[in-house]
Specification:
The chain has helices at about 40-55, 70-80, 110-120, 140-155, 165-175, 195-205, 225-230, 235-245, 260-265, 275-280; strands at about 10-15, 20, 25, 60, 85-90, 95, 105, 125-130, 155-165, 180-185, 205-210. Helices cover about 40% and strands about 15% of the residues. The chain has ten helices and eleven strands. The two termini are about 30 Å apart.
């Protein structure tokens, strides 16, 4: 690791047979306001994506619903042909009929169309990591995940993951096909997925916490500020360092539209919390 790639300071983690740096990048926020539509500063977002990789982020998380389609398109425009170290994970199973709606659609026919759309936008023949974005209560979970397993056997997906799941749903998916990642909301203020995280630790499955900073809400925790002041860090850096220390299977994906915040988040990979710090945040 060199100082030019600060995101590499947290070490690596496996996604099946792939290895990525543990401080990753979430590409949801590069779409327009409310994660809807194009951005007026598109060229800035393309440069941001290039900078994210240059800082040592080797896993980028996205989804077809971000924009919709904007985030995937920007990643391809900024980084294709992709560096060999870069692993892209995307998701399908949410649709955006309007700016403020995120509707679940786990029908196999929809997931097949969603995957083909992601492959085209990302200019790939196979997605490294494809995750079912959310269970659809109107569709049996086995039918939704089974459709992804079929597409994996067809060679369109390298590794499978799940998102927004319970332990029961994770177990159900694993009976159908190997699962290399789980993506649930998790941060210093929201630990409702502790049981899912424990299941991932037991099985060596990467846990990808979405909203690792609670969309900013976690930074209001009164426990972060005194630790940040003592370490000469920001509350966001302490919150990210806590996630990395919380579990060896943790793969944080902080996202931002700002190069300054991107660099701040990447630097958190080198921050080490003491046992006293961790106890104060427990």
């Amino acid at each position: 690791m060199t100082s030019a790639k600060p995101a590499a300071a947290a070490g690596t983690i496996g996604l099946g047979d792939l290895t990525v740096n543990r401080m990753a990048y979430g590409a949801m926020r590069i779409a327009g306001p409310d994660i809807w539509g194009e951005r007026s500063d598109r060229s800035d977002m393309l440069e941001l994506l290039k900078r994210a990789f240059a800082l040592g982020h080797t896993f980028f998380d996205t989804a077809d619903s971000y924009g919709p389609e904007v985030s995937e398109n920007y990643i391809a425009q900024a980084l294709y042909p992709y560096p060999k170290e870069l692993v892209i994970g995307t998701k399908g199973g949410l649709v955006r009929p309007s700016r403020h709606r995120w509707d679940r659609d786990g029908r196999p026919e929809h997931l097949r169309q969603a995957l083909d759309g992601s492959l085209k936008r990302l200019k790939l023949e196979r997605i490294d990591l494809y995750q079912l974005h959310a269970p659809d209560p109107k569709v049996p979970y086995a039918d939704s995940f089974g459709a992804l397993a079929d597409m994996q056997r067809a060679g369109k997906i390298r590794h499978l993951g799940v998102s927004n799941v319970s332990v029961r749903q994770l177990d159900e998916a694993r009976r159908i096909a190997p699962v290399v990642s789980v993506q649930n909301e998790y941060n210093v203020e929201d630990r409702s997925s502790d049981a899912v995280l424990a299941a991932c630790e037991k099985s060596g499955i990467a846990f990808i916490p979405w909203f690792p900073l609670g969309a900013g809400s976690a930074l209001r925790s009164k426990r972060l500020a005194p630790i940040a002041r003592r370490l000469g860090a920001t509350p966001a850096q302490v919150a990210l360092a806590w996630l990395l220390a919380r579990s060896p299977v943790m793969l944080p994906i902080p996202g931002t539209q700002s190069v300054a915040h991107l660099e701040e988040n990447a630097a958190a990979a080198a921050l080490r919390l003491s046992r006293e710090d961790l106890a104060a945040l427990s």
